[in-house]
Design a protein that fits this description.
Elements lengths: L9 E7 L3 H10 L7 E4 L9 H4 L23 E2 L4 H9 L7 H7 L14 E3 L2 E2 L1 E2 L4 E2 L2 H9 L5 E4 L2 E13 L2 E11 L2 E15 L2 H8 L14 E8 L12 E8 L4 H10 L10 H9 L7 E8 L3 E8 L28 H14 L1 E2 L30 E3 L14 H16 L2
Parallel strand pairs: 1-2, 1-11, 2-8, 11-17
Antiparallel strand pairs: 3-5, 4-13, 6-7, 9-10, 10-11, 12-15, 12-16, 13-14, 14-15
Length: 421
């Protein structure tokens, strides 16, 4: 992982991006000792940097530009997605991309969450190493295993500028043959040739940048809105020793009649021939058993509770009345239900302070070609024979909550797809 060393001149698999999905893919492919894998990461290796292992470092670090990607800098929330959300992926034209496939085989299993109704609480899992109380991220977890695989090379401070193609291999489908890469402190651009596949795992923004001439790139990009409301906690014995941080989360059902009206008003034109996103969202919002938001409770010294509300879809309303059950009133300094005046004040505050999250996905979605999208359900870029995408940019519809768990699982599935070829 010497950032000053030139890359290999050739490799069976070239993985562009050493983030969460890229390192999972590299590790799993390197289990076959007969193939060579090269990972090119534009950011530095900071796995042993105390600034990164500090659990709050994600607040100040450039998003994803480091070995391990977002898993090295995010807020540590590992939330398995809902069955309803994943099943829409298959309904949008991607056979096999459903809850049953993922739940049986990949990063989240029945030991972590049993999927019954979509609405309901979830066990909160933080990506923290219990042995050292430091961040557990892809660069630490997978690089340690990869170090034992001599057929895997991970190069940091290596920025890919371009993918270069041969003449059409089969019909009008092109074969990705080389990548043009720049190494920090080495001004000469290097060509690296692939013997098999080039895999794009550069993230939701950089992957479409490398594919920007392809039809449909970027058109499906999505993100969550988040509203955070502070609330004073009561000073009672039950919470005296409560450690700051995330305490609980749940998938919930909001009043979605207004969402359905907005969907019909602003996205009705999508129904005819584009991504199918409108129909997929309608299926969820119209079903009372399906969640439409994620809510979490975090605490900070004070003591103060932070309620966070993440509406799951683009038109979901961030301001809703969420009642607190009477048995929990004693934990809050103002345990009574809000008055009409205080609710209006809260609505105004949310409208002013609501933020987008760092949950961006979908910029290179897996959807049928007739829907003007970019990637087959086999993760191959349309018009190519061997160029694949494995990061969060392939999500056709964003998960109900933090996407990290889904990114890990997608990368594992992607490795299985490549191994089966």
């Amino acid at each position: 992982m010497d950032s000053h060393s030139p890359p290999l001149k050739t490799a069976d698999y070239i993985i562009v991006g050493g983030g969460t999905s890229g390192l999972v893919m590299a590790n799993l492919l390197s289990e076959d000792p007969t193939v060579s894998i090269l990972v090119l990461e534009s950011g530095p290796n900071r796995a042993k940097d105390s600034y990164i292992t500090d659990l709050m470092a994600w607040l100040k670090h450039p998003a994803g530009h480091v070995l391990g990607g977002s898993s090295a800098i995010n807020s540590l929330v590992f939330v398995p997605p809902s069955a309803a959300g994943l099943n829409t992926w298959e309904q949008m034209g991607n056979p096999g991309w459903n809850w049953q496939t993922f739940n049986q085989k990949y990063a989240y299993t029945s030991k972590l969450v049993l999927e019954r109704p979509t609405v309901g609480t979830r066990p909160y899992t933080a990506t923290i190493n219990p042995n050292c109380a430091q961040r557990s991220s892809a660069d630490v977890t997978y690089s340690a295993v990869a170090a034992q695989h001599p057929n895997l090379t991970i190069l940091t401070a290596a920025t890919v500028h371009r993918i270069m193609f041969n003449s059409p291999a089969v019909g009008d489908r092109y074969r990705a043959a080389w990548i043009l890469v720049e190494i920090t402190d080495n001004p000469d651009l290097k060509l690296v040739r692939t013997n098999r596949k080039i895999v794009l795992a550069a993230g939701v923004f950089q992957t479409p940048k490398l594919l920007e001439l392809n039809r449909g790139v970027g058109a499906n990009m999505q993100n969550h809105l988040i509203a955070i409301i502070p609330c004073l906690l009561s000073r009672i014995s039950e919470i005296e020793d409560l450690n700051p941080g995330f305490q609980a989360l749940a998938f919930i059902r909001l009043n979605n009649q207004k969402d359905l009206r907005l969907l019909d008003q602003f996205l009705s034109s999508e129904r005819s021939a584009t991504s199918g996103r409108t129909q997929a969202i309608e299926l969820i919002l119209a079903n009372l058993d399906k969640a439409s938001a994620c809510i979490f409770l975090s605490t900070i010294p004070g003591p103060v509770a932070l309620f966070g509300l993440i509406p799951c879809f683009l038109l979901s309303q961030a301001v809703q009345y969420l009642s607190i059950t009477p048995s929990l009133h004693k934990f809050f300094d103002r345990g009574l239900a809000p008055t009409e005046a205080s609710l209006e004040i809260t609505k105004a505050a949310v409208r002013k302070k609501a933020l987008t999250t760092h949950h961006t996905c979908g910029s290179v979605a897996i959807l049928p070609l007739e829907k003007k999208k970019v990637v087959y359900s086999t993760l191959t870029v349309y018009g190519t024979t061997n160029l694949r995408v494995v990061d969060a940019s392939i999500f056709p519809l964003m998960p109900h909550a933090n996407p990290m768990a889904t990114v890990y699982a997608v990368a594992e599935r992607a490795a299985d797809i490549l191994k089966s070829l």
